Amino acid sequence: PFQCSQCDKKFFENSHLTRHMVIHTGHKPYQCNQCEKAFLRKGGLVNHLRIHTGVKPFKCDQCDKNFYRNEHLVEHMRIHTGEKPYQCSHCGKTFSQNSHLQGHVRIHTGIKPYKCSQCDEEFSHKKDLTNHMRFHTADKTYPCSYCDKVFLHNKNLISHTKIHTRETPYQCSHCDKAFSEKGLLKRHMKIHTGVKPFQCNQCDKAFSRNDHLTGHMRIHTGERPYECTQCGKSFSQ
């Protein structure tokens, strides 16, 4: 066998040893020709290139979602199956994705790994840091010329502006409805196709939209997040 000179790993083929040595040298031979990213493995480059080409070869057979990588599809499928294989060792709560478990565990540990580069604030979740950064990047936003809304990304401004211009380029082929965004048309099409990919894992109900499933689940959980400010009575929807 071929022995690694840096660690105790052994390989039957020299080519496998050569590939392994990259871990120690840090050399990343597979360079993206679209950006500055480089990868240890050719497979990593192939997966990355889909970000530039937009190719999403892994399709969910329960809904119209597509993914760049197979592992992302596997994680997504748990929405439909209700599988939650990742369990918190502190409280027993279960999650469909490992990243969700890791984020949850920080509630127990108090770890805040996301640090603001502009001030001394720290956050448990990346999305909280992203929201916080808006305070520092207020001069790099995209304001709507029709109302007082402001957006961090130009594509979001373009999408929002269609509300004011009443531009609806996405026409339903089954009826006379038209929409400002492709995603809204896709959601509407489920009315005609009858597809209900969002299945309740507590009963046999199924829904065409995930937000409808979320609302329905409160029947089972008893959750009532909407509270009246006048009398304190709470509601599920």
Describe what you observe in this structure.
There is one protein chain. By secondary structure, the protein is α+β, with helices and mostly antiparallel strands. The chain contains 8 helices and 18 strands. It has helices at residues 14-25, 42-53, 70-81, 98-109, 126-133, 154-165, 182-193, 210-221, and strands at 2-3, 10-11, 30-31, 38-39, 58-59, 66-67, 86-87, 94-95, 114-115, 122-123, 142-143, 150-151, 170-171, 178-179, 198-199, 206-207, 226-227, 234-235. The strands form 9 sheets. The chain has a two-stranded antiparallel ribbon with strand order 1-2. The longest helix has 12 residues, at 14-25. The model has no long low-confidence stretch (mean pLDDT 84). Keywords: DNA-binding, Metal-binding, Nucleus, Repeat, Transcription, Transcription regulation, Zinc, Zinc-finger. InterPro entries: Ikaros_C2H2-ZF (IPR050589), Znf_C2H2_sf (IPR036236), Znf_C2H2_type (IPR013087). Residues 2-29, 30-57, 58-85, 86-113, 114-141, 142-169, 170-197, 198-225, 226-237 form the C2H2-type domain. Belongs to the krueppel C2H2-type zinc-finger protein family.
